[in-house]
Amino acid sequence: MEPMAIADCLRAQFPGEILHTQTFQGQTAVLIRPGRVVEILRWLRDTPDLRMNHLRSLCGVDNARRKDTSVSPFEVVYHLTSIPLRHEIRIRAQVAGEDPCIDSVVGLWTGANWLERETYDLMGIRFNGHPDLRRILLPEDWQGHPLRKEYPLKGREEWAGMTELLDRVKELDRFGFDPAAHPRPQVGPKPEKQP
Amino acid sequence: MTASIKQTLECPVAEGEGEHYSLRMGPQHPATHGVLRVDLELDGETIIECTPQVGYLHRGFEKLAENRTYSQALILTDRLDYIAAMANNVGYCLAVERLLAISVPRRAQYIRTIVCEMSRLASHLLWLATHALDIGAMTVFLYCFREREILLDLFEELCGARLTFSYPRIGGVRQDVTTAFVDELQRFLYIFPSKIAEYETLIDTNRIWLKRTVGVGVVSGEEALSLGLTGACLRASGVDYDLRKHQPYDAYDQVEFEVPLGSDGDIYARYRCRMEEMHQSVRIIQQCLDQLPPGPIIGPDAPDLLMPNKASARMEADSSRYGTGLIRLIRDRNCYLEGEIYVATEVPKGELGFYFISDGSSRPYRMHIRSPSFIHIGALAAIAKGEMVADLIANIGSLDVVLGESDR
């Protein structure tokens, strides 16, 4: 099915939820309200004409530095494709700026588990109903979410875990390995045989 | 007999009582293929709970790419899946070309298809070598590396690098293939099918190999789709999804090849799928070499790029403006379109997708990498649950993960 036709189907099925559709280089994106996102994705997956059974990717977008100021502060973008019918669509769900959160789709695709954890870790968007929402790529005690636009490219200070580790190394150095206490035979050229 | 051994031997085993304990495997375990850590909850040797931990190799590529021009970010993709860096480069270039509407000459498309398939061979050879080594078939390891060496030499002949190539460019490739390269590649294609037969003789009907792989780590088709598996792992479960056929890119619509499918979804099926894929790769490369059209290797509208033949003229023009020795990259050119694109390619590990948002400037507003290894490791918990701890090694090997790609 053509991507625009899929967008029209969506609009007919969920009239209040679709904000607008956009086509660029043959790919169509549908911007939706976040409230019924699980319902919309479930409908896309289970409708016999669409059968979008493969969640290709899921990621968050920070719109803080967009030229167009009418967009929502955050977005969660889902790429869906249908393996038997060979069509695809992009769903962009708006997310509010204060405490960004959206419903989890782990119930639809188990594989979304790690993708949502990644989005939470790097973008700071929480997923309601996620079974295990923890940081995944960064350490548990990391400050901030790196993919947000306000996060600096170069950090100002060392991660606390690293300074702890360095202190520990220094501490252990006091009882450290003293080469003089453990003499080793020096490796060198073999002594020449006396004739 | 010492007292402690005697005590151990005489220690009664309580009936019906489990032996629960936790085990941390990795990140320095040789069979985890990099820095993967798996936290295991075991009952004897049976896995109750398996929690993979990634992130040891996180370098923040998505953030870095937002601060670089499109052609500068190309080198980051080398460091994703360093076993098959060429395939990542091509995937990145394709995505940027589609985003910025840049055309690619036909010769460059064919060369890219050749190098993509060569990197598939290189990746599958390394996978077979290490996977077999993990399970205990030592001999295969050196056999595979023998052929992989020829491929790496060929890459070196082509672009001067053996690991991080950055050979494809946005709008084409960096330099043309030489006659020596084509001849050597032809010789390799001639001998390689017999080498695949050699590996198969070693392990295909080996009783130990079969016991370790058949019926282990079974994933059904629906389960694989739900977990997001792609590539050979998905096809071994019987789902026909190969982006080279689904959304052909470069010269894949010009060549004939089959997509090998499995049905059982176990480790053996994944092994068979990849072995068949190697045969198909040989076929694709052979057809590309036969059809290789003459012509330019880089399009006229390729941005941010200096070709060796144009470099002297550009350097002169730039040096008059900025001083000698400075090659200015075109940073302020207004050829960038505003929009968003998701382009995926079939790399050896699975579906590698690049999602770009462009706001019209020369740097991507947002770049997201959908890396197959990340999703495959995420699926490990579901696949390994309830199996033996020894089979976890076999499962990690058969999923074919590279941590550089997973952690980005």
Question: Layout of helices and strands, plus pairs?
Answer:
The complex is a heterodimer of chains A (195) and B (408).
Chain A: H1 3-13, E1 18-24, E2 27-32, H2 37-46, E3 54-62, E4 74-82, E5 87-95, E6 101-103, H3 112-123, E7 126-128, H4 160-173
Parallel strand pairs in A: 2-5, 6-7
Antiparallel strand pairs in A: 1-2, 3-4, 4-5
Chain B: H1 3-10, E1 20-25, E2 37-43, E3 46-53, H2 61-66, H3 74-78, H4 85-100, H5 106-135, H6 138-159, E4 168-169, E5 172-173, H7 179-203, H8 207-213, H9 221-227, H10 232-235, H11 243-246, H12 267-291, H13 308-322, E6 338-347, E7 350-359, E8 364-370, H14 372-384, H15 389-399, H16 403-407
Antiparallel strand pairs in B: 1-2, 2-3, 4-5, 6-7, 7-8
Helix pairs in contact in B: 4-5, 5-6, 5-12, 5-15, 6-7, 7-12, 14-15
Structure characterization notes:
The complex is a heterodimer of chains A (195) and B (408). With 195 residues, chain A is α/β, with parallel strands linked by helices. Chain A has helices at 3-13, 37-46, 112-123, 160-173, and strands at 18-24, 27-32, 54-62, 74-82, 87-95, 101-103, 126-128. In chain A, the strands form 2 sheets. Chain A has a 5-stranded mixed β-sheet with strand order 1-2-5-4-3. Chain A starts with a helix and ends in a 22-residue tail after the last helix. Helix content of chain B is 50%, strand content 13%. In chain B, the strands form 3 sheets. Chain B has a 3-stranded antiparallel β-sheet with strand order 1-2-3. The termini of chain B are far apart. Residues 323-334 of chain B have low confidence and may be disordered. At the A-B interface, strand 3 and helix 3 of A face helix 2, helix 9, strand 6, strand 7 and strand 8 of B.
